[in-house]
């Protein structure tokens, strides 16, 4: 586990299912931002956003490692959506008892896990980054799926992510690198894992109306994995009085590490800060950035 601050003395010290690959920043805050990477992804997808939210706002952050991730493809294939759901809800329940304010942010299918968790655990605000219900992005190679043992549509996205991680190693040599498993996303996805994602989608989609937590949704206009229609599905289906949809330009699916990562943090922090106040005016907005 990579951490900044004294984790052994923090409220997260005894958190269930902690992993060495988790990315944690401790600022002795009463605010915790819980970040969930995408399926087949890695905590590094959320590390840059974690740093920005913690450094610029003084908040504690925890980017979790989902079960089966940071290992290998067979290990990932042995986990299901039930494992991912239980992991997120268990950790958020633990955090809820220890922080005054708790916010959950998910990327891709991680956004679905965050949305569902908000109906089980009281959360003060949600961030849904590139929420994924329909794989209909412009770069999705549908022809590769049938009859194959693994599906490589996400491989292109993960390849860009791994390239970004490699470049980052030379950018800031003063910052110790995270465990290697935390930076390696799977270049492929088994059909079993695809089926688990489908089951997750079929569980969360008809229950979106149960979500009442204030929610900010961010997605790229040119998302290569899942087009902005997915964000509109979330925006139109949830029952949150306060919801905000922002469409970003000049980036692709993994908005937390691409060209608009500063904008992602810049939009998210004020939205969360607003919901730390006793009173606020509900807003329902769609904007472009």
Lay out the secondary structure.
Elements: E1 2-4, E2 23-25, E3 31-36, H1 44-57, E4 60-63, H2 73-77, H3 81-96, E5 101-107, H4 109-117, E6 125-129, E7 150-151, H5 153-169, E8 189-190, H6 191-204, E9 215-220, H7 229-237, E10 243-248, H8 261-274, E11 284-288
Parallel strand pairs: 1-2, 3-4, 3-5, 5-6, 6-9, 9-10, 10-11
Antiparallel strand pairs: 2-4, 7-8
Helix pairs in contact: 1-8, 3-4, 4-6
What does this structure look like?
The protein is α/β, with parallel strands linked by helices. It has one domain: Alpha/Beta hydrolase fold, catalytic domain (Rossmann fold), CATH 3.40.50. It has eight helices and eleven strands. The protein has a nine-stranded mixed sheet with strand order 1-2-4-3-5-6-9-10-11, with helices on both faces. A two-stranded antiparallel ribbon has the order 7-8. Helix 8 links the parallel strand 10 and strand 11. Helix 1 packs across helix 8. It is globular, with a radius of gyration of 17 Å. The relative contact order is 0.16.
Helix- and strand-based class?
Answer: alpha/beta
State the name of the first-level CATH class.
Alpha Beta
Summed over residues and divided by their number, the pLDDT gives a mean of: 80
The succession of helices and strands, N to C, reads EEEHEHHEHEEHEHEHEHE
